[in-house]
Amino acid sequence: MNQKSNTNITLLIYGIAFTLIVLVALQPFTPASVLTGDPLIVAKGKFYYGAISSLGSIGWTATSTICLVTYFMLSDSRDKKTRSFFLFSGLFSVFLLVDDLFMLHDDFFPNYLGVSQSFILALYPILSAFLLINYRGRIAGSSYTRLFIALGFLALSVIIDDFFPIVNRLDLAIEDGFKFLGIVGWAIYFFDTAFTVLNYEVKRPKNRIMPKVLKLDKLEPEFSNN
């Protein structure tokens, strides 16, 4: 990418950010300070309120970033399936981040759009199943135990949230605790997998066969000649 393209992209991003701030300042529905201020300050909360939830958002963000960066760094690779694996995983993580950060399934969808919480939560297993089935070759060659443990913790969190009433603070802590453990495991798995893939890509001589972490069931033709 040349300097002119970099400049244009930078200007575009700044333009979008500036437009967003202007729209927030001009909209008549909610005071701008409520939308631009720190949530803890707006809600007059203590600095430690929602600490685990905030750490979870950082985990989603980190995982989204590593997956999408890996996708772009593999732009010269002919192994399209591996690139697709990281793209889908990154976008899936972004969806989970936005949903968790803004409490979309808890508040926005049911209260503003009339979409039930159960419908949104049903997307989690559907997207997870797509990930596991469509990319089973990549996952089978990776440290998949970590991924299944993470999905197990996240599934327990969703099950408690959707099927069991929260009657006290301990119940809520258990649900959020399972979710946080799932986020940690999700981040560990994708950091490890991305590191392995990128490390191999940097060191891989041309025409050398791909390792199992990249391809287990089939090999791309260009890497099968050694």
List the keywords.
disordered C terminus; 2 domains; 226 residues
Would you write up a description of this structure?
It is built from ten helices and no strands. The longest helix has 35 residues, at 169-203. It is mainly α. Helix 9 (144-163) runs antiparallel to helix 10.
What's the layout of helices and strands?
Blueprint: H1 3-26, H2 32-36, H3 39-42, H4 51-73, H5 80-101, H6 104-113, H7 117-134, H8 136-140, H9 144-163, H10 169-203
Helix pairs in contact: 4-5, 4-10, 6-7, 7-9, 9-10
Task: Write a brief structural summary.
73% of the residues lie in helices and 0% in strands.
Order of helices and strands: HHHHHHHHHH
Give average pLDDT, whole number: 87
First-residue to last-residue Cα separation: 33 Å
Integer-rounded radius of gyration: 21 Å
Number of helices: 10
The structural class is mainly alpha
Unreliably modeled segments: 212-226
In one word, what is the shape? globular
